[in-house]
Amino acid sequence: MFGIIDAIENWIRDLLISLITSNLTTLFDDVNSKVGTIATEVGQTPQGWNTSIFQMIRTLSDNVILPIAGLIITFVLCYELITAITEKNNMHDVDTFIFFKYVFKAAIAVYLLSHTFDITMAVFDVAQTVVTQAGGIITNETSIDIATTIAAMETEMEAMSIGGLVQLALETLIISLSLKIMSILITVILYGRMIEIYLTVSISPIPFATMTNREWGNIGTNYFRTLFSLGFQGFFMIVCVAIYAVLVNNMIVAENIHSALFSIAAYTVILCISLLKTGSLSRSLFGAH
Q1: From 62, 108, 129, 220, which residue has the greatest number of CB atoms within 10 Å?
Q2: In the predicted model, what is the mean pLDDT of the chain?
Q3: Which pTM does this prediction carry?
């Protein structure tokens, strides 16, 4: 009689341990996968992330925004010429050098406007180089050793009661579901950043048209700051992922499985919040507004 009860108890225990192990394996696989996904996504340039969207944005910029930028640069250059002539003692002390200066500034303005996309993409190419190098280091050094982690947890689970195993199984199911939800939120954050980049790039000819003017130049300067802040936001995202992965990887799971699991959930929430704040942090550091 007691042998049958013990056999049933062992069967239930083995079933629960197998369920928990499966949940934990999926959970840690999701962690490793998300770390690698973020490192890959933020390292993409606008033209590399989605070629179709990039071509659409470039077409809109060339056909809709560029003509407006042409009108703006015409106004700016006329204003520059009038200001250059009248600021010298109300046209009584005109130096011929100001015309050479004006032609030089006009040439620079036209060159910037005609190479808007090349210059804009160069900013993101620089940022991508930094992000890609950082992502390679992070992906290689912060991957969780699933086999070792599961083995340490199984040792503790074998000493737990059936009630404790049932509780742990429910916890792993809830936390695994929570991590999947957090994974969706992280994907939304990554896609939101890329959409913001495309929106910013689409309007690039207008701020470029103002860069050579003293009074209006702050528009173009701030635009450049915004481009760098968006580009290097990816680097800050990579750093957030690195901190998250190291925290999860360094957990002492053998002492308290329950604490370790809820720590993973807490770290994931912190990761989402940190990724959300990278945009404002990057803008603040680069002085973009």
Answers
A1: 220
A2: 78
A3: 0.78
pLDDT tens readout for residues 7-41: 777 777 777 777 777 777 777 676 667 766 777 77
Angle made by CA atoms 203, 208, 211, in degrees to the nearest 5: 145
Cβ–Cβ < 8 Å for 271, 240: yes
DSSP notation for the chain: -HHHHHHHHHHHHHHHHHHHHHHHHHHHHHHHHHHHHHHHHTT--HHHH-HHHHHHHHHHIIIIIHHHHHHHHHHHHHHHHHHHHHTTTTTTS--THHHHHHHHHHHHHHHHHHTHHHHHHHHHHHHHHHHHHHHHHHHHHS---HHHHHHHHHHHHTTS-HHHHHHHHHHHHHHHHHHHHHHHHHHHHHHHHHHHHHHHHHTTHHHHTTTT-TTTHHHHHHHHHHHHHHHHHHHHHHHHHHHHHHHHHT--TTT-HHHHHHHHHHHHHHHHHHHHHHHHHHHHHHT--
The predicted model gives 138-151 an average pLDDT of 60
pLDDT tens digits for 209-253? 887 777 777 888 888 889 889 888 888 888 888 787 777 766 655
pLDDT of 89 reads 55
